[in-house]
Phospholipase D family protein
Amino acid sequence: MLTRQVVPLIARLSLLLFAGLLAGCARGLPPLDHGPVLAVSSVADSFTTDQRRMHLDPESRLSAFGLLDTGRDAFVVRSALIETASQRIDAQYYIWNDDASGRYLAGRLVAAADRGVQVRLLLDDINVAGKESLFAMMEAHPAISIRIFNPSPSRKGVGRWLSFITDFDRINRRMHNKTFVVDGNVGITGGRNIGDEYFDEHLELNFRDRDVMVLGPLAGAMTDNFEAYWQSPWSYPLGQLYELPESERAGDRLSGLSRATTEPLPFTAPVPQGRNQAESLLAGWFADMVKAEAELVFDPPPEDLEAPADKPRNTAKALFDLIESARKEILIESAYLILADEQLNGLDNLGNHGLKVAAITNSLATNDLVTNHSGYARWRREMLEQGFDLYELRPDAPGCKRWVANEQACDKGVVSLHSKAVVFDRETLFIGSFNVNLRSIYLNGETVLVIRSPQLARAVAEDIERAMAPENSWRVSLNEQGSLVWQSRDGEVYQEPESGFWRRAASRMLSWLSIEKYL
């Protein structure tokens, strides 16, 4: 039997060993020098170049924009752009799933690389685990390069998870930017990652999301965004993190991945088969795009990942400037909505200035992350007292059949909000990867478009208002007794609707913690 003296000694030794283990995990990878930066410009001779010349005056600063409002459109347009690429594809994503749509787009990128297109894929490390084999196979292609932003030194097992605790400040600096640029002429940015649930192809959970396709000069600005992260000393070549397959074995697997994209496909979306179909489809999109003045704003990667993240980043500053200049109305659509004292104080006395602020976000029933909902719930009352009109999405919203181009998925599953847009006075549209929350303000890298187009701003504003309608959302308010009330066409309820006891309890307990900056 252990004596009383031995037990405390073993406990102390165990703590020392555990602390040593944590300290080892806390050491991040050293910064990399990628060498001289090569100039990148738009491609002089391609289908997208012809479309740019056809639809835009080369002397004008305007770009042209098209809203990708359904996941089906977003998937089909990306597929078509890959088919028409002549020289270069740069894709930057927070999440790229190894599912049907993720593998299909990966396979078409391989097919593009086979015909000589240079493909660069930049991924945030936080969601790479479990998908390494797909990316390692792609990296083995001589025309495909993949880098991982801010990787954990431990690639799997307990060490990887411990690094999230021991290296907390660095790990929380994520690349949430999402851009897809073809030949420097056409780009897509917005809220969508790559995966079935973003493209209306999931049978249980589909995200209501929104992207913007851009033709013209701002596609070059998206390339600048991509290059800033590609050349970052915190972006690591995949081959330095994972063992790549042998060339002969990789060649067979790459050919199989590419061939699988020409066989009968499991999608409800009619993806274009071949270059001619792709060009015909895109020509229709380009003809309908709206020309407007706009700017692209992005947050560059931090020089020091462990430096205090206590100042708003570029995209947040752009949003605050637009808020200050708003005259009548601000409409907010944000998957995660978390504003604390500092932000709310900047919106003090909204009603006295005649400025209406209405926001729609996820309810507890539709939020894919209870933790994120708890951060919103912590500040929900303060937002209401500040004069916000708050709406929370219903999981059974009939609007699903308007937003998700897969009626079967709407009937069988749940719709969740993932889009991120703010409309100012129905004149200016702020849209991209930026959630109106503390993480996007202080920690993440984000990319947004500020588009000065009443036509596009009104279209998004009307869609937000449809989402706020009683059949699609609950309106949250304070009754005369100061209690929270959820109102819909079905009446009033006094607790988080359509959510079970344990989910409500988890959200309530988490809301007691001051962790909203990291949600």
